[in-house]
Design a protein that fits this description.
The structure holds 2 protein chains of 2 kinds. By secondary structure, chain A is mainly β. Helices cover 0% and strands 57% of the residues of chain A. By secondary structure, chain B is mainly beta. Classes of the chains: A mainly beta, B mainly beta.
């Protein structure tokens, strides 16, 4: 079945630094979503991307839908302690999985004050 | 506006015991999902219900059963719990059959330990 490769698995950064993470797929996706999971909570939708090449921002977060439709990137600028958590990419491909989302394994972000 | 509510939040079971995880949403969503989250494995789909009255297997359905009781409620049952089912379980819902249109809304999870 379709799989997403999300990297890096974990990041330890200093407060104020910028963060980049990405997801790649072996097949084409028509939608990319980025979620954040705070410790002890469920994932919450951050950004949704619907068109190849689309670049969308949500505050300090910026995500892009890759031109090839097989990848997506999430950047966080000027990180702060509350950015700590696990970030998941999710995608919906054509045909397979009956319309259900496929999730990456997550990037765990730790921020040192 | 409660969104997706899961009960219980924590549970410890002995091997072989049974239990039902409850999930309810108040957003009038059509589709509902059960995921499990294990370290390093991300979110894996157990079962889903595209609409009231239908249920389908996901990636890891073995050892579980589900019931879509009505449009609001979707329960997950472990008939005979095993240590391999120790995990965090998330329920999610979506307004539209096409998952990409709105994305999922998740509950806060049930942390299950089987000893």
């Amino acid at each position: 079945g379709q799989q997403l490769n999300q990297s890096p698995q974990s990041m330890f950064i200093q407060e104020g630094e910028d963060v980049s993470m990405n997801c790649t797929s072996s097949s084409i996706f028509n939608t990319w979503l980025w979620y954040k999971q705070d410790p002890g909570e469920g994932p919450v939708l951050l950004i949704a991307l619907y068109k190849a090449g689309e670049l969308t921002s949500n505050g300090r977060l910026t995500a892009q839908f890759g031109i090839t439709r097989k990848d997506s990137f999430l950047n966080i600028s000027a990180s702060i302690p509350s950015d700590v958590g696990i970030y998941f990419c999710a995608g919906q491909g054509y045909g397979g999985s009956q319309g259900n989302l496929i999730f990456g394994k997550g990037t765990k972000l730790s921020v040192k004050p | 506006n409660a969104g997706v509510t899961q009960t219980p939040k924590f549970q410890v079971l002995k091997t072989g015991q049974s239990m039902t995880l409850q999930c309810a949403q108040d957003m009038n969503h059509n589709s509902m999902y059960w995921y499990r989250q294990d370290p390093g494995m991300g979110l894996r789909l157990i079962y889903y219900s595209a609409s009231e009255g239908t249920t389908d297997k996901g990636e890891v359905p073995n050892g579980y059963n589900v019931s879509r009781l009505n449009k609001r409620e979707f329960s997950l049952r472990l008939e005979s719990a095993a240590p391999s089912q120790t995990s965090v379980y998330f329920c999610a819902s979506n307004a539209h059959r096409d998952s990409s249109v709105y994305g999922y809304t998740f509950g806060s999870g049930t942390r299950l330990t089987v000893v």
